[in-house]
Amino acid sequence: MSLQPSNNSLQQRNKSHIRLHNLGFPRIGARRELKFAQEAFWKGEKSEAELLATAASLREQNWQRQAGLDLVPVGDFSLYDQVLDLSFTLGNLPARVQGLDGSELDQYFRVARGRSANDSGCNCVHAGEMTKWFDTNYHYIVPEFSADTRFSLNPDRLLAQIEEAQAQGHNAKPVLVGPVTYLLLGKAKDATDSLSLLAQLLPVYAELLKRLAEKGIEWVQIDEPALVTELAPQWQDAFRTAYAALAGSGVKLLLTTYFGQLGENLELACSLPVAGLHLDAINAREEVETTIEKLGTDKVLSLGVVNGRNIWKTDLSVLLDWLEPVAQQLGERLWIAPSCSLLHVPVDLDSEQKLDAEIRSWLAFAEQKLAELRVIHSALNHGRESVAAELAENLAALNSRRTSPRVHNPRVQKAVAAIDASLGERQSAYPQRAALQRDKLNLPLYPTTTIGSFPQTQEIRKARLAYRKGELDAVEYETRMKQEIEFAVQQQEALGLDVLVHGEAERNDMVEYFGEQLDGYAFSQFGWVQSYGSRCVKPPILFGDISRPKAMTVAWSQYAQSLTEKKMKGMLTGPVTILNWSFVRDDQPRSVSCYQLALAIREEVQDLEAAGIDIIQIDEAALREGLPLRRRQWAEYLNWAVESFRITANGVADSTQIHTHMCYSEFNDIIEAIAHMDADVITIETSRSDMELLDVFDEFHYPNEIGPGVYDIHSPNIPSVEQMVKLMRLAAQRIPAERLWVNPDCGLKTRQWSEVIPALKNMVESAKVLRADK
Ligand code: GLN
Ligand code: ZN
């Protein structure tokens, strides 16, 4: 049933105003101004006052971009991370920075990154742990708890920003991570149960809310994204306790959830004594109706109706068809917003002057998403005809995307439809393959190799930049890259490594490099999204059906192989990782995009094999990252993700050896899926963990070969022969030596040759020691 009220009746029902607000705005600036200011401050090139001035000016610009909203977020801005900001607001500083000299900002950066400006050489503070913010690529600084944790209110930063926003004429809505999510995100450094800190934490929150009320604040956005995850009963109780304690604090709380469905926490969320609830109406659209029922008649329901996680235009007419009846039902109790903070999208599409005009017309960055919300807001409050032109323009853009031959490639769609189980099957099981590979590859026990990249030197970067600017022609660029490859091969031969790599000199980035050569991908110039601190990523935009016009890596690998008698490993990025590090389509399931990528990379695998490359590594660095927030959805994801890998990898002869690489070490809960990938060799990150991480491979009787990293590439330290031998002996207690490889944790592109050579020399030496063990 489509309820299409006439605009008149809508206006009558909604004489009262539906409010428009925002949950957070990207802080880095349209030109990454914050990044450059932070880095200049850390290098001592800018004073604290200059950094703070840049920050204030960014806040001012951001609020201006949000002008006219009924409420603008304050406290979403951060000099590093909003969770770390909150730790400071709550007086929860790790003991190791307390009492150090310098300003509060110096302490802040010491926790954030181990040092502030002018601290160089000081190794006395280690940085706080960093981890992913739910299922995003944003990383926060993990709050640290211990038996000694005492909270105490330190509200000045937030209060000052509120004053700033108010002085600029905005209706400020402070944004805080809520107490339960804060405790859940943190980690105890001793046996302390985080939950036991709740009673101590709540009075500090209550005091903070009181101080906000004194500033004339009406609404506070209190973010509890933990409500979209599976919660143990004691954590559900914590929500009841917390919000009972915060009721009557003098401000209205908008309990804010995002990134997913409330599921079994829906009743809990609706029952808490707050003034309003925000629901992610992109991911939890089907929960809106029940939420309205359960919410009662006195609470505001804020609906996140524009996707804060992707870069696509919203289909405004379709959205309004759904939203108008809701507006009619709720009247002024309805608010609208993006689904989550806009932190996760780039700032402004207007910066993109080089992007293809048609593709550009399909996109919306943060600024454009706010514009969409203004249109929806106006349509709801004043009728669709008040924004007829905008709606028509939106429809035209959407139609162009729906029908564009650049998006839809019947050949690719047919190939995906024709996928069957046989495509993902190797010809024989691992034991038969291993025998054939042993004969063909003739490798020693404990074969040594590296993960792919060698140092990306200044010269390589300069050459690439000059090539991009047109100062270097393609032939000259290729010559320079070939020289780099030759150098890398010579070094590896001199070191005595067993399986060589070409070194990836020609690659800027392991995803972008492939995206640039595949049809169906577009690239922005300024589409930066904060990953952590001053680090930003520019995810490529997967907009259409994926195909591979021609071979992408074969010539480089072939050239590298021609330089040596040793085996040269071909090097590819796998479909799941390409998918997880891109902005992906919203007009088809992720699984379909992944299968398309799988078919394209499969062609590359087969071309490499045909070109005489006998070992091919397919990196799946980001497979784990794609796991859904709720465990019960893991199986479905792992199913298509692993199948995509198998399709990519398994079209080769038994004697061709497939490697995969993963830059993490938590396999406990996904070991079955990893085994099902059935790579002949998997290399993983283990050097920091004394090989305990191999226990799960042992317990699971993981059948194939493993290269547990023995060289921590994140550290400039040179690992000794003894260290690496010790690690590998520990590994050999868990995995038979016949199935072990010796390799670093990850690629070496961020290191210097002067570090890599002695480290790999020791690594090769350690393999010799191990062989003598036998
Ligand atoms: N082959 C890639 C490299 O060595 C792998 C990088 C990664 O796993 N992140 O750089
Ligand atoms: Zn890695």
TrEMBL record:
Keyword Nuclease carried by entry: no
Cofactor dependency: Zn(2+)
Binding site for Zn(2+): 661, 663, 685, 746
Catalytic EC class: transferase
InterPro entries found in the cross-reference section: Cbl-indep_Met_Synth_N, Cobalamin-indep_Met_synthase, Met_Synth_C/arc, UROD/MetE-like_sf
Binding residues for L-methionine: 451-453, 504, 619
Domain Cobalamin-independent methionine synthase MetE N-terminal: 21-329
Annotated catalysed reactions: 5-methyltetrahydropteroyltri-L-glutamate + L-homocysteine = tetrahydropteroyltri-L-glutamate + L-methionine
Keywords: Amino-acid biosynthesis, Metal-binding, Methionine biosynthesis, Methyltransferase, Repeat, Transferase, Zinc
Highest taxon, organism lineage: Bacteria
One Pfam family hit: Meth_synt_2
Domain Cobalamin-independent methionine synthase MetE C-terminal/archaeal, first and last residues per copy: 447-768
Signal peptide region: none
Entry annotated with the keyword Signal: no
Pathway assigned in UniProt: Amino-acid biosynthesis; L-methionine biosynthesis via de novo pathway; L-methionine from L-homocysteine (MetE route): step 1/1
Binding site for 5-methyltetrahydropteroyltri-L-glutamate: 32-35, 132, 535-536, 581, 625
Job description of the protein: Catalyzes the transfer of a methyl group from 5-methyltetrahydrofolate to homocysteine resulting in methionine formation.
Record protein name field: 5-methyltetrahydropteroyltriglutamate--homocysteine methyltransferase
Organism of derivation: Marinobacterium maritimum
